[in-house]
Amino acid sequence: MTDRMTRDDLDNLEQRYRANLINSLSGFKSAVLLGTTDGKTNNLAVISSVVHIGANPPLLGMIMRPHTVQRDSLDNIKQQGFYTLNHVNTQWADKAHQTSARYEQDESEFDAVGLTPFFSDTFSAPYVKESEVNIGLKVAQHFSLLNNTEMVIGEIQEVFFAKDALDKDGYLDIEALNTASISGLDSYHSSKRLARYAYAKPNVPLETK
Amino acid sequence: MTDRMTRDDLDNLEQRYRANLINSLSGFKSAVLLGTTDGKTNNLAVISSVVHIGANPPLLGMIMRPHTVQRDSLDNIKQQGFYTLNHVNTQWADKAHQTSARYEQDESEFDAVGLTPFFSDTFSAPYVKESEVNIGLKVAQHFSLLNNTEMVIGEIQEVFFAKDALDKDGYLDIEALNTASISGLDSYHSSKRLARYAYAKPNVPLETK
């Protein structure tokens, strides 16, 4: 049974209730930790707004809210120009969520939640050692959207993952690596593969890989 | 064991291999069918680039590639200003993937893959009857990004879902509604909830909901 909610219905909801509902509508989202630094304090923030922009050059986008707990991360990105994205693991999703608490600016979320920063020799922003997939990015484009959120697009500089999780066609099996997903604002999920499908052609039965 | 790939390594990969890999890096993605019309033919395209922009006003974004099979959808959106987003269900993910085949412009993917269009009395774009969550949107902002992809942001006009899947705080249980997720370009997944976590506070143990 399907019910309808009009725009008026949505506008009349209590603010927190509406935030939960609208955040559920976009479907399952990537669970990622954003690693930044101001040169002294290493900052970590869970985000669920990462979106693929392109493969060549390799670009990832994300939506940031400047007037929230994400402000320190955004300031660091503006100051340094570099940041990392690290997959949240199903085994420690609670630690990822805990980074959303409002810590002081000079307090590191790494220490507060019990995750370990590591630095590669060529990159200034902190990675999360416990993540199975680490991505180092340099800001490529940064602008405001109509509701005063900000979109940051980064160009991938380097990536870390276990190569034995790579399929022969380049697909990285992030399910085998226990990457988590998010729905709504606070629900974390593991996954179970239904299938990989071959390139689809008109009037030809779809094959699985 | 974690291996590193530098930007040079990524740039030297074969094109399709790189597309599979980079598309895997963004983590789990929303599996959604984009419904549009030119007034005659109802168009359906699977997309995995939906991103939450804001709850008040309710805004969803998506990244579109104008020089691919998505061109017809994009033309319809430009012409009409309205479109729908419909959650892909784990029970018919194959039909969703089949919409990515290169059908003729005057051929409806609804007919081709066996899904059913429905129209609400106040909205011009087609919804997918088999989806458990249907969202009607009006274009609010549309612009090009640095790699010539296009970002379309839509304002939600109406939503359809079963209200018994709503939690008391507004969270919509899209796992109970069998919403699928995507990793890479062609892998479809069901989900299993790990936990919902309460609002996180510094130095207070995280509680589950």
List keywords for this structure.
homodimer, 209 residues, alpha+beta, Pnp Oxidase, Chain A, 7-stranded antiparallel β-sheet, 3-stranded antiparallel β-sheet, 5 helices, globular, FMN (chains A, B), oxidoreductase activity, acting on the CH-NH group of donors, NAD or NADP as acceptor (chains A, B)
- Please provide the ordered H/E string of secondary-structure elements of chain A: EHHEEEEEHEHHEEEEEE
Kindly name the structural category of chain A. Answer: alpha+beta
Alpha carbon gap, first and last residue of chain A? 35 Å
Query: What would you say the CATH architecture of chain A is?
Result: Roll
User: How many domains, in number, for the residues of chain A?
Assistant: 1
Biggest sheet character of chain A: 7 strands, antiparallel
Strand order of the largest sheet of chain A: 4-3-7-10-11-6-5
Query: Which strand-content bin applies to the residues of chain A?
Result: 35-45%
**Total E-strand runs of chain A:** 13
Assigned CATH class of chain A: Mainly Beta
Pair of chains with the largest interface and how many residues each contributes: A-B, 116 and 116 residues
User: Spans of chain A of 5+ residues with little confidence (pLDDT < 50)?
Assistant: none
Q: Taking all residues together, what is the mean pLDDT of chain A?
A: 97
CATH topology annotation of chain A: Pnp Oxidase, Chain A
Shape of chain A: globular
**Oligomeric description of these chains:** homodimer
Q: Please, how many helices of chain A? A: 5
* C-alpha Rg of chain A (nearest Å): 19 Å
Give the helix level of chain A as a range of percent. Answer: 10-25%
The CATH homologous superfamily of chain A corresponds to: Electron Transport, Fmn-binding Protein, Chain A
Cofactor (chains A, B): FMN
Organism (chains A, B): Alteromonas genovensis
Protein name (chains A, B): Flavin oxidoreductase
Family (chains A, B): Belongs to the flavoredoxin family.
